[in-house]
Design brief:
Elements lengths: L6 H24 L6 H21 L6 H18 L2 E3 L2 E3 L1 H18 L3 H31 L14
Antiparallel strand pairs: 1-2
Length: about 160
């Protein structure tokens, strides 16, 4: 790599990744989800570290994008581990998506693109808090009006 990144910049990038991951993880922690504060912080830190390593290795014949592809795949695998299926109901999709988005935020921080990281974090935070409130109001109203009726379990198992 033609330009070396200073130790201070490395620390700032990784600290930004940890803080951003912590913000999303805090929301998940307050909801009592299995992947909470520490998990999201670690995913963001790992993605940021791999991104920094990829940038450091960039040079003649090196392709840092291949490292990022591996990071994205690995984070997808972590997210898949948080998805559970039980009695026809799938749970953990928001947690899996959060882990994936936090990985992207960590990679953005690792590359030094703080604006992308901040905008992505703002969108994620808005989705987790704002959209949930809209969903709760909309679906609560529909339940109250009888527009949506939950399926009843009649005990039959095929």
């Amino acid at each position: 790599m033609d330009q070396t990144i200073s130790v201070v910049e490395i620390v700032l990038r990784l600290l930004a990744a940890v803080v951003c991951g912590g913000i999303v993880g805090w929301e998940r922690e307050t909801k009592g989800r299995p992947a909470g504060l520490r998990t999201h912080m670690m995913v963001a830190l790992g993605a940021g570290s791999f991104t920094l390593a990829a940038l450091d290795m960039a040079g003649p014949g090196a392709d840092p994008v291949r490292i990022l592809q591996g990071v994205v795949t690995g984070i997808g695998f972590l997210g898949a581990g948080s998805i559970m299926q039980s009695r026809g109901e799938v749970q953990g999709m928001t947690t899996a998506a959060g882990i994936w988005v936090v990985g992207a935020i960590g990679a953005a921080c690792g590359s030094g693109d703080y604006i992308m990281a901040a905008v992505t974090l703002a969108f994620a935070f808005t989705i987790l808090f704002g959209v949930k409130k809209i969903e709760d109001r909309a679906f609560q109203k529909e339940h109250a009006e009888g527009l949506i009726t939950p399926a009843k379990d009649d005990g039959d198992r095929d």
